[in-house]
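Lecture 7 notes: from sequence to structure.
We start with the chain below.
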Amino acid sequence: MAATEKEDLDFQYSPSRWSHRMEADAAIQDHVHVMQNETDKARAQLQCELNVQFGDREGDKLDIYKPEHYSSDAPIFVYIHGGYWQFLSKDLSGYMAIPLTAAGAVVAAVDYDIAPKGTMDVMVDQVRRAVSFLSEKFPMSRGLYICGHSAGGHLGAMVLSSDWSKVRDGQVPDIKGAFLVSGVYDVTPIIKTYVNEPLKMTEDDALRNSPCLLSTAVARNHPNCMVVIVFGEHDPPEFRRQSKEYFELLKGHGMEVSCVDIPDTDHFTVVHNLAEEQYQLTKMVIEEMSSS
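Predicted structure tokens for the same chain:
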């Protein structure tokens, strides 16, 4: 691949360089700052179970935030963090817990072994097992609601395409809704970018783990799941394109799916604004969970 072609691809898959608010490094630092501060607040204010082990791998951990008046039938909001499969963790992923627990939901922030420790196959397996674990842990819940951002949007979509017969006890979790935010649904272009340096994905790895090639499995496994594909006005064009194409695939299978372009947001504010009770996406999530 010519150097100029690689540079262009790297640019297209560098969300921080498309922010309308600030320079690339500053946008990332601001994102981490908001997530850390709001997660710290949630841990200080809420009932928490931290570092809950959901499997045998060292990285198989998640954090649980409960509402003050917890009910066994509370909906479970399952958050899968982003960071291009190589940064961030659950320790910065409780930032939406205060407004969502105030609405009666349980929030679970899932960890997974980021690259280079974890391969794409390992990460996908971990988040699938985490969702299965939460389904077993909260058997009276009126439903699970998956939310993933960026790389987490990809992993959330892979959860929906799971062959559950091969996960833990083989039971299909009751996933009522999914909010996939600024995700990557075709990871094959990633192979040729800087993002793949720690991932070391092969073409076979990418094809096996591209949600756009597994949309029939979503419709088969979770035909009644409401899916919301979300992206920011200032997300990179490639992220917006992939989101729209994945929306069309799910729509073509007759699923209840919507596509939401949130004004005046970039790749980072589109999700970390979930810390705000009056934010458009926060209200959508609460309304959907309340209607189940």
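Points to note: Residues 24-45 form the longest helix (22 residues). DSSP finds eleven helices and eight strands in the chain.
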